[in-house]
Amino acid sequence: MATKGKAGTEKKLKTAKNEKPAVLAGAVPEWANTTVIAQILGKTVRRVQQLTQEGILPTEVPPGGGARKYRTCETIQRYMAHVEQKARESGENGQQADLALRKLQAEIDLKESQGELHKMKTDIAKGRYISADQAAEDMADFMLVFRKFTDAIPSRMAGVMASYTDPAMARAMEKSMKKELDAMLSLFVDAASPAEVAAETEEAAP
């Protein structure tokens, strides 16, 4: 008799383990306790209690009195709204963080530009830069001196070559050298004319 009673008890325990909570099957009850809400939401009882303390999932005293409970459907809706709000805030925070980074980078670029501008102004004040007009005048003076120097090269070379060849050949070589130097100087002058130098200096000026 005792064996039969023990077997019946074990059978009942196995049946109880295999059965799903009543709250998850059939009609959803209007009221539920913390354990049932935790099962429905797939959260721990502790997490549900935290949400309750934070005012996200409030409890009420049922009409018949007794311990405070949750309105089942309303609680689920509140939790879904809470999750959606968190998702929106997360997206907004991401956008705000991106905007903050862009703003910070812009400020850094501005600071660097201001630093470079300040350095350039300081260099100008110290005379390390000259005006475009001054640069053009200096270039014109340089070209004049350089032209005089190159014009003297053929005649000086002819004097040197005279000791190695006859005077007629030396003069012919002098003319050829002068012609070649004139052609080279023309190209050099065109590439470094005062007008072009002035234009380039103005583009580089602050």
Write the layout of secondary structure elements.
Layout: H1 2-18, E1 31-32, H2 34-41, H3 45-53, E2 70-71, H4 72-125, H5 132-161, H6 167-191, H7 194-204
Antiparallel strand pairs: 1-2
Characterise this structure.
- The chain is mainly alpha-helical.
- The chain folds into 2 domains: 11-81, Arc Repressor Mutant, subunit A; 130-204.
- The chain is 75% helix and 2% strand.
- It has 7 helices and 2 strands.
- It has a two-stranded antiparallel sheet.
- The radius of gyration is 48 Å and the shape is rod-shaped.
- The chain starts with a helix and ends with a helix.
Spell out the key features of this protein.
mainly alpha, 206 residues
Strand order of the largest sheet: 1-2
Average of per-residue pLDDT values = 75
Total number of distinct structural domains: 2
Low-confidence regions: 12-25
Assign the structural class, choosing from mainly alpha, mainly beta, alpha/beta, alpha+beta, or little secondary structure.
mainly alpha
Distance between the termini: 109 Å
How many beta-strand runs?
A: 2
- Based on CA atoms alone, the radius of gyration comes out at 48 Å
Please work out how many helical segments DSSP would assign.
7
Strand content: under 5%
Shape: rod-shaped
State the order of secondary-structure elements, H for helix, E for strand: HEHHEHHHH
Q: Helicity, in percent?
A: over 70%
Give the biggest beta sheet: 2 strands, antiparallel
Q: Quick gist of this model?
A:
The protein is mostly helical and 206 residues long. It has helices spanning 2-18, 34-41, 45-53, 72-125, 132-161, 167-191, 194-204, and strands at 31-32, 70-71. 75% of the residues lie in helices and 2% in strands.
